[in-house]
Fold this protein.
Amino acid sequence: MKKFGCFVAVLLLLSSTSCVTKKKYLIAENGRLEALQREETLKKQLVDCRDENDQLSARLSQLMRDTADMRRNIRSYREMLNTNLGEQDKLNELLTKKMQELDERERTINQLQDLINAQNEKVQSILQSVKDALMGFSSDELSVREENGKIYVAMSDKLLFQSGSATVDKRGKEALAKLAEVLNKQKDVDVNIEGHTDTKPIHTARFEDNWDLSVIRATSVVRILTKDYGVSPMQIVPSGRGEFMPVADNETADGRSKNRRTEIIIAPKLDELLKILN
């Protein structure tokens, strides 16, 4: 009985030891499987990380290339901007200069316009004074007109001279005296005395031709205005036009009569206008 009991005890001990070993084995196996699973998971995660890292590296490279391109573009834009700013400065400077020139031109134009207006007013005033002074003479004797800013007093040879003569008649001297009163009040005018003839030729001991006659008649009028009536010689210029500036048809007696004339042309001095223009 004692032996049997020992045998049973041994069996119980072995059975108990086997259960413990199997349990440990299962625990160890589960641990190994879990470790393998974790390893696979980590390997997969590592692969995923490597793929993601490759993608990030590729993206980073692309971004670096894009950044380099942007820097080049920015440098190019800056250069263009600096160039454009330089051109803009030049354009602004040119524009400012042109605006100054325009302002100067406008001032000059305004000055010229003021002087022209003053000249026109002066011409009209002198014209009226001449008309008033010569009111007592008929249209057959003289005419007064304004043309291109000048006053023309055309005196016929009936008023001034006998036929073929350069000696001024009494009636002509009266007209010249009236005109001299106006001229003596106008020191800033120029006076041109022009002699004119018709086309009928003349050849005498005194006059070689119509040129001679027209010139000497003009100087005769100048002498009377300056020596007899005190008009300044600095204002007067005599000239002869002969037959070459007719105002009427030389084929008729009336036309020839109109062409035989002495024109006294009164023009305000243009010194101020010339100064501005120069």
Notes: The domain at 115-277 is CATH 3.30.1330.60 (60s Ribosomal Protein L30; Chain: A;). The mean pLDDT is 86. The chain has six helices and five strands.
